[in-house]
Design a protein that fits this description.
This protein has about 140 residues and is α/β, with parallel strands linked by helices. It has three helices and eight strands; from the N terminus they run βαβββαβαβββ.
C-alpha cells in the first residue's frame, strides 16, 4: 500500500484507495507537447519525461502523453475537464493568448464550455454546470 507523506497537500482531499481517472493522450512530439502545456496551459510540473512518454501536472490535473507518428490519433482524441474553477482558467488562457482557444459559452446540452486544441490536434474541453447568469 502506498502511504501519503504527512506534508502532502492532497492528503485531506483524497483517499489513496479511491481510483483516479487520468487521460492518456497521443503526441506527435513529446518536447513540443511539454512546451505547449507548460507555456500556455500552466502544467508546470513534469513528473516524467522520456522520448516516448510524458506525465505533466498542474495543481490537481495530471495528463499523460504517448508518442505516435500518426496525426489521426491526435485528431480523434480529447478529454473533458469539469469544475468550478473553469471561469478562472478561461481568464488565464485568454490573458496568455492560448492558440485555438474557443469562446466560453453556454452549449445546447446545458453546459458552459470552452475548448482548446493542442498543436497536434487533441481536443481539451473545459466546462461547468451553468448558473442563472449564464442563461440570460
Amino acid at each position: 500500500m502506498t502511504q501519503i507523506p504527512a506534508n502532502d497537500p492532497d492528503q485531506d482531499r483524497a483517499n489513496i484507495l479511491d481510483p483516479e481517472v487520468l487521460p492518456v493522450l497521443p503526441s506527435l512530439n513529446i518536447e513540443e507537447t511539454a512546451r505547449f502545456y507548460s507555456t500556455f496551459l500552466g502544467f508546470d510540473q513534469v513528473i516524467y519525461q522520456a522520448q516516448d512518454y510524458l506525465i505533466i501536472r498542474r495543481a490537481h490535473m495530471e495528463l499523460h502523453f504517448w508518442l505516435t507518428d500518426n496525426r489521426a490519433h491526435c485528431e480523434i482524441s480529447g478529454i473533458y475537464i469539469r469544475g468550478g474553477a473553469i471561469d478562472a482558467l478561461y481568464a488565464e488562457f485568454t490573458a496568455k493568448a492560448v492558440p485555438s482557444l474557443s469562446p466560453f459559452k453556454l452549449r445546447a446540452w446545458d453546459m458552459k464550455e470552452f475548448y482548446v486544441w493542442d498543436p497536434h490536434g487533441n481536443l481539451l474541453k473545459f466546462g461547468r454546470i451553468p448558473v442563472d447568469e449564464d442563461k440570460m
